[in-house]
TrEMBL record:
Keyword line: Cell membrane, Membrane, Transmembrane, Transmembrane helix
Protein name, as recorded: Carbon starvation protein A
Keyword flag Cell membrane: yes
Annotated membrane topology: Multi-pass membrane protein
CstA N-terminal domain mapped to chain residues: 4-377, 391-530
Transmembrane regions: 86-106, 133-156, 162-180, 187-206, 239-260, 272-298, 318-338, 358-379, 385-404, 411-429, 481-505, 517-536, 556-580
Protein origin, superkingdom: Archaea
Pfam families tied to this protein: CstA (PF02554)
GO cellular component terms attached to this protein's record: plasma membrane
InterPro entries given in the database record: CstA, CstA_N
Location of the protein in the cell: Cell membrane
């Protein structure tokens, strides 16, 4: 039997070699130079452009990119196709695809005033290309908010302890923001005190779980409401009630200045996340060395077949769905929005981009490895997939590993791992809404009409994301949302790599384009194939032509399938159109040479 320690060691070796070697090469390749002024200093405004210490910004960035997707996706893929395909895509694809993607998105934005990938492509291919990629990103953001809002609600329902602990650390983050930025008190003592308070919040959560409506919860759970008028989501009224609460939180957090909640909360929660990811990996090592390794063997098939194993309810082709099922952990387009949205506006020094961009994505790969290990060692793998599979196994499997490695009682360890999951999700959700605000603001530009002024209002454009997201998840159709989210997210990653390749080609006609161009081409083929499969085969052919409806073909189901087809086809059309314009620009830059300023910034025409 293969031991879990094997996966852990192979991942650590792969990622260490990549960081020490490939990331150093990339840093030299884009000429990181601390003598250059970063956008955070150049445009410092106390609202969005705020220079941040590297540990604080790494905490924000890592917390924002590492949402629930690198947990749900790898676990689902492991059960559907086996642990070998899922593990290889994470261990090899992350340093060569995802980490390159995140690093290049961050550095290209840093060299373009901290603007988004949409702004950057507009500088080279024109306003039409900019608007198309911004609309693509905005649609993806709504899917992100919808999916993460649903997952958070499910976690709060499954682990009411996590709901209480989350409330505690949000309050702590607000106080920590005042401590750091208003009172200007010492960073290190404050960090030690507030991090300790975060872990005390975990204990409070275990002692005083929180739920919104009555249900089957641990003893002592505090129930706030006697009932709810909302219809059940995934069979639970509590989940249905948590969804709007989470989305309202995302709305409020996204319109606050970054120093009030985003920066301090992400730094504090990162300590919790590091403990969860690092603690689980260390527990595997300790458990193996202390003789408990026989309890940490992999209990799922190495390879379950191209069409999936017996543990799933329907056949799913490994190509291309494996690569969009693991929507994060290897490569994620959402990260390009974080890197070129909030993170690039807070970089204190250019050289920080290597640790935060490349290293942060390797950290997410470790989270994906933890997710694979937790389900691989946990014997009770249920059928189905998606959210119903991922949540109990990540928490239960992680609790088992912490118990074996460190002797932590599973009654505490499992809720702790549930809190780890929700901590990632909360930070990603409100960061996504904030990024969606940036998308709309860039689309509007300088408001010239009353309508544009309304659209540019931060409260209005945040609402334009939260309300559609709620409509998407109100029915709880997770099986429809997840593959569409994955396909859109990974296509956005291909577009971000295209933007980086365009930037490099216009910077210097001698720059090599393989580091970004090769993963870009691979991802374009994978993701457009997946979206077309979902639209034309899974929905159009299987449902409308063959009549394979799970609920007998209700009006709601038909409307949902039709919307999915339209969204998928629109995304494919946008992606191919942008790719066509981008490739033409690269050919022109390589054929004629483009005038650019030092560091890759577009030169002034005069």
């Amino acid at each position: 039997m293969v031991q879990a320690i094997t996966l852990v060691v192979l991942t650590l070796v792969s990622f260490t070699v990549a960081y020490l070697g490939y990331s150093r090469y990339l840093a030299q390749f884009v000429d990181l130079d601390d003598d250059r002024e970063t956008p955070a200093h150049k445009y410092q405004d106390g609202q969005e452009y705020v220079p941040s210490k590297k540990p604080v910004l790494l905490g924000h960035h890592y917390s924002s990119i590492a949402g629930g997707a690198p947990i749900v996706g790898p676990i689902t893929a492991t059960v559907v196709w086996g642990w070998v395909p899922a593990f290889l895509w994470v261990a090899i694809g992350n340093p060569l695809f995802g980490s390159v993607h995140d690093f290049m998105a961050l550095t290209s934005s840093m060299r373009h005033e901290g603007k988004s990938i949409g702004y950057i492509i507009g500088e080279y291919v024109g306003e039409r290309g900019k608007d198309m990629i911004l609309w693509f990103a905005f649609l993806t953001i709504i899917l992100v908010v919808a999916v993460f809002g649903l997952v958070i609600a499910v976690v709060f329902n499954a682990y009411p302890q996590a709901a209480t602990a989350s409330l505690v650390y949000i309050v702590l983050a607000l106080v920590f923001g005042v401590y750091l930025y208003q009172l200007d008190l010492p960073f290190l003592p404050g960090t030690m005190a507030f991090v300790a308070a975060v872990f005390a919040g975990v204990w409070i959560g275990v002692q005083y779980p929180l739920a919104l409506v009555p249900g089957d919860y641990p003893a002592g759970t505090i129930v706030l409401l006697s009932g709810s008028p909302l219809p059940p989501v995934l069979g639970s009224v509590n989940i249905a009630t948590w969804i709007p609460v989470v989305l309202v939180y995302g709305f409020i957090a996204s319109v606050l200045p970054v120093w009030v909640l985003l920066q301090p909360r992400d730094f504090l929660t990162s300590s919790l996340l590091y403990a969860g990811v690092g603690g689980t990996l260390l527990a595997v090592i300790v458990g193996t060395l202390t003789g408990a390794g026989q309890q940490l063997t992999i209990n799922v098939p190495a390879y379950a077949g191209f069409w999936g194993g017996a543990l799933v309810e329907t056949t799913l082709p490994l190509f291309p769905l494996l690569f969009v099922t693991i929507a994060c952990g290897t490569i994620s387009g959402f990260h390009s929005l974080v890197s070129s949205g909030t993170t690039a506006k807070q970089l204190d020094k250019e050289t920080d981009a290597r640790t935060i961009g490349y290293g942060g994505m390797l950290g997410e790969g470790l989270l994906a490895t933890v997710a694979i290990v937790t389900v691989a060692v946990y014997a009770e793998v249920p059928t189905g997939g998606g959210i119903g599979l991922a949540l109990p196994n990540f928490a239960a499997g992680g609790g088992l590993i912490l118990n074996i490695g460190f002797g932590i009682p599973e009654a505490f360890a499992a809720p702790f791992m549930g809190l780890v999951l929700v901590s990632f999700l909360l930070t990603s959700t409100d960061t996504a809404v904030r990024l969606g605000r940036y998308m709309i603001e860039e689309l509007v530009g300088t408001p010239e009409t009353q309508v544009q002024e309304v659209a540019a209002n931060r409260y209005v454009n945040a609402s334009l994301q939260v309300l559609p997201a709620y409509i998407l998840v109100a029915s709880g159709r997770w099986a429809d949302l997840w593959p569409l989210f994955g396909g859109a997210n990974q296509t956005l990653a291909a577009l971000a790599l295209l933007v980086a390749t365009i930037w490099l080609a216009n910077w210097d006609d001698q720059k090599q384009l393989i580091s970004t161009g090769a993963p870009m081409a691979f991802m374009f083929v994978i993701t457009t194939t997946a979206l077309l499969y979902l639209a034309l085969y899974q929905n159009l052919y299987q449902k409308f032509f063959q009549g394979n409806w799970a609920d007998g073909g209700s009006t709601v189901a038909m409307a949902s399938a039709a919307v999915q087809i339209i969204i998928a086809l629109v995304l494919v059309w946008l992606a191919l159109s942008i790719a066509y314009m981008g490739i033409n620009n690269i050919r022109e830059a390589r054929g004629t040479g483009a005038a650019v300023a030092d560091g890759g910034e577009p030169a002034d025409d005069d």
